[in-house]
Design brief:
229 residues, mainly alpha, two-stranded antiparallel sheet
C-alpha cells in the first residue's frame, strides 16, 4: 500500500510540538543548554538556525537527484556551511553583542544535528516546497524551545527578561543556579515532560480490548470448547 502523503500544514506544524527537534527528538541539546541563559540569545540562535534550515533544505532538495549517495554528507555539510557563513557575517555586522554572546555555537550550526538531520531525513527525500515548510516548522520549534528555556532561566536566575530588571531583586530574588548548567538541565527536563504530555493529545478515550482483537482469543475459544466437551 502506498505511503500516505503528508500535508504542508502537517509538515509545518509538526516541528512545533509533536516533533519538536529539541524536546521530542532530543537533537541540538548542546547549543540549547549553552545559549539559553537569556531569552534574547535564544531568539538570536533560533532565527539564525531557522534561516540555515530553510536555505539548506531548499538547496539540498533541489540538488537531491544530482548528489551521489557516497558523498551526500560532505555535500550537505558544504551547503549548510555556506548559509552559516552568511548568517555569521550578518550578525557580526549588525549585532556584535549577539555574536559575542553566541560565541563558538554560532559557527557550530554547521554540525548541528537538527540541520544535518533534516537534510538527511527530509530534504534529500522530498520536494522543495515541502522542504521549505519543514525547515520553517523545525526552526520555529527550535526557537520556541530556546525562548522558553531562556525566559525561565533569565527570569529566575537573573531577575530580568530581555534586559528588563524586575525591581532589582525585590520582586524576584535571583537564583544563580538557574543560569548555570544544573539549572539548564532542570528546565530542559521539565520542558521535555511538558511537551511529551502535550504531544499525547487530549480527550482520547482509553482503548478497549474485546474478544475480536484479543491476541489470546483463539486460545480462550479452544479452552471453552474443550470444557463444554
Amino acid at each position: 500500500m502506498a505511503k500516505k502523503q503528508r500535508s504542508i500544514g502537517d509538515i509545518f506544524f509538526s516541528g512545533w510540538i509533536k516533533e519538536n527537534p529539541v524536546l521530542r527528538l532530543v537533537l541540538g541539546t548542546c547549543p540549547t543548554l549553552a545559549v539559553s541563559t537569556q531569552a534574547f540569545n535564544g531568539i538570536g540562535m533560533g532565527v539564525a538556525a531557522t534561516f540555515v534550515l530553510v536555505g539548506s533544505n531548499l538547496v539540498i532538495s533541489l540538488l537531491r537527484n544530482f548528489i551521489p549517495d557516497n558523498v551526500r554528507i560532505p555535500a550537505f555539510i558544504t551547503i549548510i556551511a555556506g548559509f552559516v557563513t552568511v548568517v555569521q557575517m550578518v550578525i557580526q555586522a549588525f549585532s556584535p553583542a549577539l555574536d559575542k554572546a553566541l560565541g563558538i555555537y554560532l559557527p557550530l550550526i554547521v554540525v548541528n544535528c537538527i540541520i544535518l538531520g533534516r537534510a538527511e531525513s527530509f530534504a534529500s527525500k522530498n520536494g522543495p516546497i515541502a522542504s521549505i515548510f519543514d525547515g520553517i516548522g523545525m526552526g520555529i520549534g527550535f526557537t520556541i524551545t530556546l525562548l522558553l528555556m531562556g525566559s525561565i532561566r533569565e527570569i529566575i536566575g537573573n531577575g530580568s527578561w530581555m534586559g528588563i530588571v524586575f525591581n532589582h531583586g525585590t520582586v524576584i530574588q535571583p537564583m544563580l543556579i538557574m543560569i548555570l548548567p544544573p539549572g539548564g538541565f532542570f528546565v530542559f527536563g521539565l520542558l521535555v515532560a511538558l511537551f511529551n504530555k502535550l504531544a499525547e493529545g487530549k480527550g482520547k478515550e482509553p482503548a478497549t480490548l474485546t474478544c475480536c482483537n484479543c491476541p489470546q482469543a483463539d486460545m480462550c475459544r479452544e479452552s471453552m470448547e474443550g470444557g463444554n466437551n
